């Protein structure tokens, strides 16, 4: 195992943006940066042992200051959507940035964690990013957040999130990497097969805000409980798919009990790569890249609609506004303190 680093660019305030490279002895390599704690590249061997970069992204650090699709980004303090861009904690109403048709998406497009500079330190197999966040953007509490990226000899990329706050607040982080198991520049993921260990999901209204219902996937195109080619049902005449342009929904993880559980498996027949996702969180947002607009990515390739898929482990979207959803409120002091401490693993075969 080894971790190296190099200057990747300059931040908007003139600081060095650093690219960290973690490698193992099995031919796997992860590259992460202190701008946004972004996963820039992930090199994974295929069935024949050939390693390719399987995540969408950009060649230069500066391009991540645009990044309207959130390629590789660490989203926080609140991932996904909050309805009406507002919520209450202990009777106090907090207003958020209205950046998504009357709702809030991913906290703030310019000031969220994905465009902040993080502090960093390294060990022999990991990079530990940390950020200090005073009460900003409509999220109370002085927050201290760490995210540790680790690579194992079993070809696992492990993300360990840890957060505290001196007041009750929303902490709901996720990673927004787009995966294409045939290679980041290989076109559509509709031929990938996916299996989710999720018998229920949270239906939405237009604008992708959950209704509050936790619905069965059985008998609908949302049933991905056995291996399903992504393209088989994504364009079906089904209101949930039509509203979201395809799969872009939160699925509820079977048997959620805060333990690490196998949540999703994705297979690519062309390359033979298999990715399994494990998490101790209650939900996973499966997004099939329905709104990737044509743009230039790494190596000058063009990314298009459905060129990658996301599996964003999380508390449910708008969970703060639904008493029947798992709570994403953390922080406080003394006996009431609640620590945010969660792990997600992307494992490759």
Report on the architecture of this protein:
The protein is mainly beta and 349 residues long. The protein is 2% helix and 40% strand. It is built from one helix and 31 strands. It has a nine-stranded antiparallel sheet with strand order 11-12-13-14-31-25-24-17-22, with no helix packed on it. Strand 27 and strand 28 (302-303) form a beta hairpin. The radius of gyration is 19 Å and the shape is globular. The mean pLDDT is 97.
Helix content: under 10%
List segments where confidence is low: pLDDT < 50 over at least 5 consecutive residues.
none
Adjacency order of strands in the biggest sheet: 11-12-13-14-31-25-24-17-22
Number of helices: 1
Q: Beta-sheet strand percentage?
A: 35-45%
Key attributes of the depicted protein:
globular, five-stranded antiparallel beta sheet, nine-stranded antiparallel beta sheet, 349 residues, mainly beta
List strands and helices in order, with pairings.
Elements: E1 2-10, E2 16-23, E3 29-33, E4 38-45, E5 51-53, E6 74-75, E7 81-82, E8 86-89, E9 92-95, E10 104-105, E11 119-122, E12 126-133, E13 143-151, E14 156-165, E15 169-170, E16 174-175, E17 193-196, E18 200-201, E19 204-205, E20 209-210, E21 215-216, E22 228-229, H1 239-244, E23 248-252, E24 261-267, E25 274-279, E26 283-287, E27 295-296, E28 302-303, E29 310-314, E30 329-330, E31 340-348
């Amino acid at each position: 195992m080894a971790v190296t680093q190099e200057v990747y660019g300059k931040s908007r305030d003139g600081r060095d943006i650093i690219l960290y490279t973690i490698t193992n002895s099995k031919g796997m390599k992860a590259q992460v940066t202190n701008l946004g704690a972004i996963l820039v590249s992930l090199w994974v061997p295929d069935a024949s042992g050939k390693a390719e970069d399987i995540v969408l992204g950009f060649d230069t650090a500066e391009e991540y200051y645009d990044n309207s699709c959130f390629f590789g980004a660490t989203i926080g303090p609140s991932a996904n959507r909050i309805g009406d861009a507002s919520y209450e904690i202990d009777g106090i109403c907090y207003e958020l940035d209205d950046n998504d048709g009357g709702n809030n998406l991913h906290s703030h497009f310019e000031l969220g964690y994905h465009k902040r500079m993080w502090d960093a330190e390294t060990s022999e197999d990991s990079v530990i990013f940390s950020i200090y966040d005073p009460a900003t953007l409509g999220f109370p509490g002085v927050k201290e957040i760490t995210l540790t990226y680790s690579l194992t000899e079993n070809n696992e990329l492990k993300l360990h999130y840890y957060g505290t706050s001196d007041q009750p607040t929303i902490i709901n982080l996720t990673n927004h990497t787009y995966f294409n198991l045939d290679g980041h520049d290989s076109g559509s993921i509709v031929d990938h097969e996916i299996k989710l260990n999720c018998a229920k999901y949270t239906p939405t209204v237009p604008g992708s805000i959950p209704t509050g219902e936790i619905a069965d996937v059985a008998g609908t195109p949302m049933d991905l409980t056995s291996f399903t080619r992504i393209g088989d049902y994504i364009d079906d005449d089904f209101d949930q798919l039509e509203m979201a342009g395809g799969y872009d929904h939160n699925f509820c993880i079977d048997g959620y009990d805060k333990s690490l559980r196998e949540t999703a498996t994705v297979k690519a027949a062309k390359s033979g790569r298999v990715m399994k996702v494990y998490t101790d969180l209650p939900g996973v947002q499966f997004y099939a890249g329905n709104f990737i607009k044509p743009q230039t990515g790494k190596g000058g390739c063009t990314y298009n609609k459905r060129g990658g898929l996301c599996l964003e482990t999380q508390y449910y979207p708008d969970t703060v506004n639904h008493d029947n959803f798992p709570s994403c409120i953390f922080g406080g002091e003394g006996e009431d303190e609640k620590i945010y401490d969660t792990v997600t693993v992307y494992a490759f075969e």
